[in-house]
Write a structure and sequence with these properties.
Keywords: Amino-acid biosynthesis, Cytoplasm, Glutamine amidotransferase, Glycosyltransferase, Histidine biosynthesis, Hydrolase, Lyase, Transferase. One of its GO terms (cellular component) is cytoplasm. Its main location: cytoplasm. It is found in: Cytoplasm. Heterodimer of HisH and HisF. It is a single chain. By secondary structure, the chain is α/β, with parallel strands linked by helices. It has one domain: 3-Layer(aba) Sandwich (Rossmann fold). The chain contains seven helices and 14 strands. An eight-stranded mixed β-sheet has the order 2-1-3-4-14-13-12-9, sandwiched between helices. Strands 6-5-7-11 form a four-stranded mixed β-sheet, with helices on one face. Strand 5 and strand 6 form a beta hairpin. Helix 1 packs across helix 7. It is globular. The two termini are 19 Å apart. The model has no long low-confidence stretch (mean pLDDT 96).
Length: 210
């Protein structure tokens, strides 16, 4: 049975992500909530959740001894499939520009910056259900189609290379809703709050062979 490491670094959506992953796995995968570097380095798949500010999340992740190094070994050296959720996706960036400049994991080049609505009637934060635009890339994202997903955020990840954008969303202007590069993927929305469509995405992640 494959082991899925759900990274525990104090993120607020950890338990809801755990519950959704267990439901999506339906007993076929072992979901391990952990910050143990040895478990993370040996995991078959890794999921990084996240809510709140980029700075707070990156700081919390960095404060777990050996955790980033173990994630890097599993994902970058061993090619294990990785999924970042919300701020967990944003941490893939080179830097976050919230409360100053904070260095990210830099697994996909780009910046996380505040969403700027082109329509004064459209309010930020982007909160609620929205459909994706141009979903492509891995099947777990491409197969979402026109099913709405649940968003709640004020900042978005803008990759340097638009080929790394796997889906867009429109909220007073378009910005990335999902990214993918090799075995690394991330979604700005919350699959754990997106009902059957979100569970289906997580199930596809558990079967993803990048």
């Amino acid at each position: 049975m494959q082991t899925v490491a759900l990274i525990d670094y104090g993120s607020g959506n950890l338990r809801s992500a755990e519950k959704a992953l267990r439901k999506a796995a339906d007993g076929a995968s072992q979901i391990v909530v952990t910050c143990d570097p040895d478990i993370v380095a040996a995991a078959d798949r890794i999921v990084l959740p996240g809510v709140g500010a980029f700075l707070a999340c990156m700081t919390a992740l960095s404060e777990r001894p050996g955790l980033i190094e173990a994630m890097t070994e599993a994902v970058r050296a061993k090619g294990r499939p990785f999924l970042g959720i919300c701020v967990g996706m944003q941490l893939l960036a080179t830097r976050g520009l919230e409360f100053g400049e904070t260095r990210g994991l830099d697994w996909i080049g780009g910046d996380v910056r505040k969403i700027e609505s082109l329509d004064p009637a459209i309010k930020i934060p982007h909160m609620g259900w929205n459909t994706l635009v141009g979903a492509s890339g891995p099947d777990m994202i491409a197969k979402i189609g026109d099913q709405p997903m649940y968003f709640t955020h004020s900042f978005a990840f803008y990759p340097d290379d638009e080929n790394d954008v796997a889906a867009w969303v429109d909220h007073g202007g378009q910005f990335p809703a999902a990214v993918a590069n090799g075995n690394v993927a991330g979604v700005q929305f919350h699959p754990e709050k997106s009902q059957s469509a979100g569970l289906a995405l997580l199930a596809r992640f558990l079967e993803w062979r990048p």
